[in-house]
Amino acid sequence: MEIYDAIFSAILNILGLYVNVRIMKLFLQRKTIQHKALYLVYALVWICNWDIYYQLQTIILTSLSMYIGLCLIAVLLYEGSMISKAAVAAASLAINIICEDLVWRILNSSRLQIESAAIGSICSVFIELMLLVLIERAFKLDKNSRMPSGSYLNMILLSLGTIVVSEIILNGKATEPAQMIGLSILCLMNLTTYYLYERVTDAYRENTERTAMKQQIEMYSNQFTIIQQSQEHIRSMRHDIKNHLLLLRIYLQNQKYDQAETYLQEMQQKITFDREYAKTGNLEVDSILNYKLTHIHAIGTELNIKINIPDWTLIPAMDLNTILGNLLDNADEALQHVEKRILQVIINYNKGVLYIGIYNSFDGIVKKHKNQFLSLKSEQREHGIGLSNVEQIVKKYGGTLSIDYSTEMFKVDILLYTNHMKS
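Structure (tokenized):
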């Protein structure tokens, strides 16, 4: 019996450590480190903590060893100050202790006869897992790091089901070794399921980031092409400037002012590249707008661009791309369903406040679900994701997002406080 009990306690300890690490991951940024080193640190902390727990059977020493282990994990594997790491490790352990104490108080105050400590330990771990799921859902700002709502429900049902099945196993007629084996298998099933869900979510986030990065590279490439071709036009014009000035002087001397004005307009058109809709000197803004507006203008849209921003980086390119990219994509979709296509883009920066206004004509049909605006995308699962991602970025900067519409125009106004970015 002792060996089966040892196996069960070892697996339960792994599960408990996994929960604590997941909680820490919510508040600390993990360093870039090889997976072998990562798992080696986890294994070291687990072996030490489980050995103390199994050999000494004292709550104080077990909690102390777990705290030291969590601090070691935080120091070696995560970014941040020592104070923040120690605080997060303490918070993670505190949640564990509170859940365990709460479970035993409920069990002891109820009329249930708990003959094995195993059910109490299982209940506390899985209640902590469910609490972790709720915390993740509530506080993770990055929606690309979240599981779908249905997946969270599945995880909670899995934890509740495990508690029920554990009680059935312990109250059954099976021998104690068989009971410990059954409980161990249940814990392993939950551990692997939670871990796989986490890995799938991480993979989805990484894929989304790669896609955004690929589009950003395409935007920069497009902007560099625009700059290069504009410079070629200017060089060509500079080469012939003496001839142009000579002809203009002849027009003026002969008082042919209309011809002079027409010739000046032709010169201006020659040095202006057709695809250069924004030329503020701000590489991020110019790249995104010139890339997105090329297609919008190609479908016959009347463009009204008003931009007043400095040439230095206002917010990280990824955040800016999320806002402008999604809003312009939505405008592009809406403009394809109307005959009179109008798009107004207003971007202004003043004393740490960035204003973005995107106004476009549309067919007057607004689709909403639970106060969330839906796009016209053919893919149902993509409806509303763009604006939802924009909202998350706006919250990050403590800003505001306002959406208004009439029968002909759809308006989105955004204010971002760039000096007050939330971590």
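Residues 378-384 have pLDDT under 50 and may be disordered. The chain is about 65% helix and 10% strand.
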